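Sequence of Enoyl-CoA hydratase (Solimonas marina).
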Amino acid sequence: MSTEHIVTELRDRILTIRLNRADKKNAISSAMYAAMADALVAANDNADVRVVMFVGTDGCFCSGNDLGDFLNSPGNASGNVIARFMQAVTDLSKPAVAAVQGPAVGIGTTLLLHCDLVYAGEKTRFQLPFVNIGICPEFGSSMMMPAIMGHPRAAELLLLGEMFSAAKAREYGLINDVKADDEVIAYARAQALKLAAQPPNAMRTTKALLKRWTREQLKDVIGVEINHFGPMLTQPEAREALTAFMQKRKPDFSSFS
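Predicted 3D structure, token representation.
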């Protein structure tokens, strides 16, 4: 299932999904979403897979969506490819672990809300810049973040859209722990190996129970967010923000109401 920009490896009952587009800081394209969705669907049906682990390239986890891809095809945001990936993540019955280094922006952060164990390097920087670029949160983050950290902290991260540290992410309950940058992937894999040695049915049942009480609501929230997110990409605020980003200038929202 590996492609040029998504590399998968099944070893020791751990399926590693690696974002492998270092020249674009692992910005996710439509093709990458499709490849990850395929890998997750297959993992659910493969008894040899007991744990899924998300990693990026050395020093970079994910810089968010490929903005050029979105500008050229804004329908991707509300189309089947991203929705299918989100569905595959929420339907994953096996534990998911993430090892995060460097930037984790947009969906590079919201994906972590759906993982069971998350470990970040000391220099990791997170950001949720949805409002900054004229759009709204996605992947259930408008529900999950207040539930995890309370409304004031969620509002701070989502409305201001500022970068924040791994220490703050741990304090706010977004990640499990912070490790040295050169140790975080090995540590996360060691934790994944522990999970892979657990009784598989008991582990799947426990994860299902943990998710059961919010699963249907989460699916509704993701759908509502997508219904806002897609159209907002074509509206003037997002066009100004994304064009300014591509032109490397500060966006000007002074004339918007």
